[in-house]
Amino acid sequence: MSKVQEVIQQAQHLFSQNSSPQHIIDVLGKLLDQINAQDLNLDELMANLNPECEWDSEPIFSTPDFSLQLFMIKKGSKIPLHDHPHMWVLMRVLYGTLHLRTFNWAEEYPLSGLARKCCDETANGATSTILVEPNNNNVHEIYAIDDCAFLDLLFPPYDHEERACHYYKEEQVNVNGETLTKLERLD
Ligand SMILES: [Fe+2]
Q1: How confident is the model at residue 156 (pLDDT cuts 50, 70, 90)?
Q2: How far is the CA of 176 from the centre of ligand 1 (A)?
Q3: Which has the closest alpha carbon to 138: 100, 92, 182?
């Protein structure tokens, strides 16, 4: 069984057992850490990336409980600032180096669109699986320093209703002496 199949099979098992998000994260995070670029034949996939596309995604597996998706981004392009409402995401970088910027909503200013930058760092195949939670790292932008690829295991998956993906524009603002970021939905 391939390492990717192992993740899928283990995920199906965990969801059938109604496992807690923390348990799912612990088990699947360790399995995702074992996956590398060769397991997904990424040299070939990246060489054949559509030159017209800044980024592309390839669904690998999907159930009502979770989805596994491969994302590929051309050097110098980005997946713009977006969210994963009420979702967890295990993000495993497999190819190249990317720069990840994440934001958390400033909870003391509810519904204001104000957020604080949380993570602002590079990641590559040596980086452990990155965790996105409903209230942590949930809004993020991914910039490709090289041609790069990563896996996202999303649970629950997007549903185009209460868990629809939104894109944002950002603006730095000063609030009570603190520099925050105002995030405004584009859709
Ligand atoms: Fe994302």
Answers
A1: very high
A2: 30
A3: 100
